[in-house]
Amino acid sequence: MEKISNYLRSRKNRIDLSFYISIVTGVLFSIYNGYFGFKYKLVWNFSIFFYYIILLILRVLISFNKKSKVMFNITQITSIIITIILIFPAVLMIRNERNISFSIIPAIAIATYTTYKIVMVVRKYLYIKKNNELFAGEILILNIIECGVSILTLQNTLIVVNNGYDSDMVILSIISSVGILLFLIVIIFIFWFHYIRED
Questions:
Q1: What is the pTM assigned to this prediction?
Q2: 113, 176 contact by CB (below 8 A)
């Protein structure tokens, strides 16, 4: 316990640990979505599987290029493109209105993951307010993206668990899904311009 305590006293070690935990949870969430996407032929979960793989690749590349402006720009452009693309499977999934039955356990798992991501976003944001570091900022924006997408995944899973969509739910889900994804795109642009001005 003393070794762990000493390790966590270092701010750099805490940041690194948080980074590694995010990678592990991202991998697990990607595997989860890949499983349900392939098993139930759910276009949303199938898309999220590849979406998170791309985010994980970006996260690893960032870790090796913490002060690279080129990597920073690549991350922002890639994040915008894949988030825009994600609007289409979101709408397709909702319009498909497939009746699939599985237990509440997946919803609980996603709710737990979503709660964790929200906590990480808040903690990272508070850190950024005190330390305007490029690497920490890039990780923050990826956490925000993952948080928004996990909220949508939770929404869609709860709808499936509760016997699918009716006409009102379809409209509400389309609005919320597209709205959250567009919000994420706006956040990415705001973050991008913020660090451009810092230069």
A1: 0.79
A2: no
